[in-house]
Amino acid sequence: MRKIDVTRLPPSAAKESAYWLKERFEHSGSGVCKPKIAVILGSGLNDTLQNSTLLQRFYYQEIPHFAAPTVQGHSGVLDISEINAQQVAILRGRFHFYEGHSGSRVILPVRVMKELGVETLIVTNAAGGLNPTFRQGDLMVIQDHIGLPTLAGSNPLVGPNDDALGPRFVPMGEAYAPEYIQMAREVAAEHHIVLREGVYLMVSGPTYETPAEIRMMRILGADAVGMSTAPEVIAARHSGMKVLGISSITNSAAPETAKNVNHEEVLAGAQMILPRLNTLLTGILQRLTAPAFSPIKQTGVRSILYS
Ligand code: HPA
Prior knowledge:
Layout: H1 13-27, E1 37-41, E2 53-59, E3 77-83, E4 86-92, H2 103-106, H3 108-116, E5 120-129, E6 139-147, H4 148-151, H5 178-190, E7 195-202, H6 211-219, E8 224-226, H7 230-238, E9 242-252, H8 263-289, H9 299-306
Parallel strand pairs: 1-4, 1-5, 5-9, 6-7, 7-8
Antiparallel strand pairs: 2-3, 3-4, 5-8, 6-9
Helix pairs in contact: 1-3, 3-7, 5-8
The protein binds hypoxanthine.
Hypoxanthine (HPA) is lined by residues 126-128, 203, 208-209, 225-227, 250-251, 253, 261, 266.
């Protein structure tokens, strides 16, 4: 069994990991490591976004303060790739509370991304569909979340605050950027992908929900349930990043199906979604990395400016 270090990481951890990544990246001749966008790929979703140009790959085991994933469906790889001549960091796998990690390690990848200069975080996850209209294989853009563990004490920001990173008390009113939600809607429509919208509820796991818990979650107004994401989004908002969240509905979370749900079903559901998730994320990343000034689209403006 792999040993997990459950202790809180030192405040310098993210800086040390980022320093190591920058050094390695530059020594390999790829230039300066400066992604502005990072994507975290959740359970069973690690194999998406393979078509961008890979600049460099790092394995979690080798990155200081990172750890090897313990869960099937998480590759434990950080890719720095290039889309439209812009670097994008793709984190294939994440750290969960249920593995025994401290909140500080759960949010370490987000803090490291911040150190590298990331301004936009895209989080994806596998989730059970609480909303009875959702089906296995659906995609859902996250409008908001309910973090049961983060509400009740397991908030990754508990402890001394790093004022250089963000404020002590963090507003979560627009945790998921409305303009990114709109962008996701538009890209989905362009590609004829049905995109659900809803509230993601985080549990610590690793148990799936009892029927009574599922009924409670529905009453609370949640549409999907999963074991991740809320801490990462909290860390991202703390340090001023803009966030987009996409849930892959890998199984139904209904009182009637609660006794049969298992990780294999979740991975099979994720597999079903991969091609559409890939199209959606690729389209969103194309938009986010598109040059701000496009001579093709703005020929009228150019002719006024330069004629
Ligand atoms: N419950 C909690 N977490 C999950 C589920 C679920 O049904 N599916 C995928 N992650």
